[in-house]
Amino acid sequence: MKPHENNLSHRILVIDDNTAIHQDFCKILMKSPDSDNEIQDMETALFGAETQTMASGTFEIDCVFQGREGLAQVQKAKSEGRPYSLAFVDGRMPPGWDGIETISHLWQESPDLQVVLCTAYADYSWQEIRRVLGETDSLLILKKPFDNVEVLQLAHALTRKWELNNEIQGRLNQLAFYDSLTGLPNRTLFIENLTTTLDKAHRYKHKAALLYIDLDNFKRINDTLGHSIGDDLLKATSKRLLKCLRTSDTVSRSPAGEMVARLGGDEFTVILPEVTRAEHAGVVALRIAKQLAEPLHLGNHQVIVTPSIGISLFPQDGEDIETLLKNADIAMYFSKRMGPNMFSFYEQSMNADALKRMTIENHLRQALGRGEFALHYQPQFDLVTGEVCGAEALLRWHNWELGNVPPIEFISIAEENGMIVAIGEWVMRTACRQTRTWLDQGLPLQRIAVNVSVNQFTHTDFLNMVKSILEETTLDPQYLEIEITESLLVKNVPETTNILHALKKMNIRIAIDDFGTGYSSMSRLKEIPIDCLKIDKTFVDGIAIGKRDQSIITAIIAMAEGMNLRLIAEGVETTGQVDFLRVKQCQEVQGYLFSKPLSTQQVEVFFQKAFSLEKNLENTGDDVPPFPA
To answer: Domain Response regulatory spans what residues (predicted)?
Structure first.
């Protein structure tokens, strides 16, 4: 089924075997402008002024002698995109079809055609007509001999009815086949066009490609800036996607051309028919990635959104719609895991990974309710005093079926499906409650560091959530340190800055995690109220390899000192790294050389033994260290 074509028509077909009748209809329906006033006056009296449509002279009249000729004329008009709105059909037209049979054939070809059956009193009874043609509101009977004004009124009223019906049908088809927000084809029309594309590709041995597009971090933008901005973003994205298609391609009406559709939410698809090489799909994907990554100005906001794109090819990746869609979706998720603004071609090996991912996601949805999460805490040491100065809360998940699931396997899934907000709230509440308990026990803990994801940080209720947890656990805010990633600093700059200042006003400490791996500038760091930089493990690992990473660490330490910021080196695993960091005057360290992340009970034992950095370094030489890395 194709989308309805909403064409207005004042075309009238007369089917009668009498030439004189043809001439009469032409005289009546193609009168002079003076006689139009008479019919318009009548219309006004009957229907009101707003119903006046057009002068009768604008009717376009065609006349034929037999029913078969009439059917051929209707077919021709329809194929030209200029269908008839009304037909006057004679009841008796020997030797061919009679009027009733003619109307039956006309409606098979054009079901919305309005018809006036011109008949003598003795031709047919209404019961006979209804028995053959059925109940319908598209048929009126005009008894011979007929009045000129009556014919004019029927012509005006029925063409107007046809136009109204077509307008309504056009709107219904617009709702049925097109997305109301963007105007793009919706899932229904997409499936229809993809079906046609695959049938043609199969028949002519062509290749075809399907691109599955998902916008990175759309939910975060929608939640942070509001649904109005989110809608504007989707509309702007739709226009940009259309620009990426070739000028000869169509959006919806030609299944032979490339087509972009919105499946729902922030998911779009592009059909590429007659792909000669897979590289062509890659070229289109690159074009889309480049186009969508350009900054958008929406209201008072500058928004940058990037796509993750998955590509499946017909017939190698699937010969039916369901398989092609599934595999393009799988490839899209692999792109998302590689980072923003990426595309991937589907590979068979992805199926096993996709099944694993789906299994993890299904269990993850139940993990909070089942109490499967736990926090472990990794101590942080002061390199000057050698004492424990803080700890970082780290999430752990043990599932009854999957066992211990590494964070690297489930955190990204939680971020993509939005569960990270609820999980992050649980982490913060649990860490704050436990820290309050330890402080009441007299443990010398200066702070607890809690990681906050971008999605959680930009959630509309984040600040209220932090305040509520601190009040609920009665933890003094100075003991809480929130760790954010460096990438957050370059996104939604005004909103991020406002949230950071609000946290600082609450006396909460702020640390930049994995510093040196992002793209924040010195000027940006000066604008925000941070307390600590954490040197990423990749630089620490490179200390023993060469001078490049040593130089980077030296520069970061000098910068932190100049800005009066505390500095922690992450992932310290060798004494050589400790020696280098101590010489360069890095204040604090954290890593498996001193302690692995500890359970709540292990932390209490750890402090009871009054562990310090020096003691831990001594213990690393033992056969069985108390808290082995």
So the answer is: 11-159
